[in-house]
Amino acid sequence: MNQAEQTLISAFLPEGILEYFELTQVDKESKLLKIHLQEKDISPVGYNAEDLESKGLLPEVSIQDFPIRGMKVALCIKRRRWTVKNTGKIISRDWDLVRKGTRMTTEFGLFLKGIFG
To answer: Does residue 72 sit in helix, strand or coil?
Structure first.
């Protein structure tokens, strides 16, 4: 996606979401816009990429966002999960740790925490 497209798309999504999620699909139905987002394969804080093996995605979660041009908006979000190679433990990103970092606004962190707990 070029810079102009990314700037436009980010204006319609929660601030900071494109740092962690990739836009994969947009479906336009009668009065509903479904925006599909998939978590990028970026290692969670505290883990090195070589210590993890991606184990695919968790089931999709759909939440309602603010309307765009009179259409309801559903954000259809798929989170990633990994296996820690030396322990076999399944992990996913800890959104509390991400929120406390400097690259994420509190609003976006709370938004994700509300979705994923």
So the answer is: strand
